[in-house]
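Blinded run. Sample ID left blank on purpose so nobody reads anything into the name before looking at the predicted structure. Input follows.
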Amino acid sequence: MDNNFKAYNEAAELLKAMAHPVRLCIVRGLLTKDSCNVSYMQECLDLPQSTVSQHLQKLRSMGIVEAERKGLEMYYRIADERVRALVSAVLGEEGLK
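Blinded prediction complete.
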C-alpha cells in the first residue's frame, strides 16, 4: 500500500461521476458513436433535454466529456480516455472504440 491519496481521491471522484446509470449510458454511447448532440441523446435515452444536460454538465465538470460547438449545436465527445477502460471493465464490453 502507499499513501498517494491525491491519486486515490481523483480516481474516486471519477468513479463517483460515472456511478449513475444515465451518465454511464451517455459515456458508453459516446464511446461507441464518437460524438453526438443533446437532442440525439435525449431521443435515445427517452429523457427530457434538461435531465440529459444536467448529466452532461456533471461529466464536463469532471473532465470526462468535452463539447464542441458546430453551428447552433454542441457536440459532446469523451475527453478522458481512462473512461474507455473503466466502462469496458464495468460493462464487460471489449473493444469499445
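Unblinding after everyone has recorded impressions. The mean pLDDT is 91.
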